[in-house]
Design brief:
Chain lengths: 112, 111
């Protein structure tokens, strides 16, 4: 069974800082990996999707990387802003299963 | 304006009562999913459907039931057999490259 771990569970940084969120998974036979943002009491918003053949994806101030061999993905947030405060979750999709396995998330607080 | 809608936003259930959560999508996606989220935990898969008239149990299907009679709709029924149903329920659909899109969620509380 795929296990997905996100470290740290919570992170507090001052505004303007660059930061990295980590996601690790145990089974490297993934089809894709997706990063989401969740605001309190809301649904998940898709941030980036990395296919298994890709090494990274970028959207604005966000950059996600994928290293299947080591079972790791990172989400890099540049020049953080208070509006980035939310919980960030990663999910992996295993080949031929069409099921997704989620980490427990990293709760980010960006202080003004 | 494509997306996923869930209703109601808040739902209260009495002991022994069945309740149904609605999920509708207009993204023309074949695959749809139901997840449960408890405080401080990740999402756990309840049921999923890859095509109309077909669905599979996820990791925590006991006490829940679903139907998939239309491509756009995937309702979830929380039965009285589910002993601890208080949670946040999220519906999702998946399109190209299995990219998932989520609805706004339904918060279910047992009275």
């Amino acid at each position: 069974k795929q296990e997905v771990t996100q470290i740290p569970a919570a992170l507090s940084v001052p505004e303007g800082e660059n930061l990295v969120l980590n996601c690790s998974f145990t089974d490297s036979a993934i089809y894709n990996l997706q990063w989401f943002r969740q605001d309190p009491g809301k649904g998940l918003t898709s941030l980036l999707l990395i296919q298994s053949s890709q090494r990274e994806q970028t959207s604005g101030r966000l950059n996600a990387s994928l290293d299947k061999s080591s079972g790791r993905s990172t989400l890099y947030i540049a020049a953080s802003q208070p509006g980035d405060s939310a919980t960030y979750l990663c999910a992996v999709d295993l080949y031929n299963f069409n099921k997704f396995y989620f980490g427990s998330g990293t709760k980010l607080n960006v202080k003004p | 304006d494509g997306g996923i809608t869930q209703s109601p936003k808040y739902l209260f259930r009495k002991e022994g009562q069945n309740v149904t959560l609605s999920c509708e999508q207009n993204l023309n996606h074949d695959a749809m999913y139901w997840y449960r989220q408890d405080p401080g935990q990740g999402l756990r898969l309840i049921y999923y459907s890859q095509i109309v008239n077909d669905f599979q149990k996820g990791d925590i299907a006991e006490g829940y039931s679903v139907s998939r009679e239309k491509k756009e709709s995937f309702p979830l029924t929380v039965t009285s057999a589910q002993k601890n149903p208080t949670a946040f329920y999220l519906c999702a659909s998946a399109g190209g490259y299995n990219e998932q899109f989520f609805g706004p969620g339904t918060r279910l509380t047992v009275l």
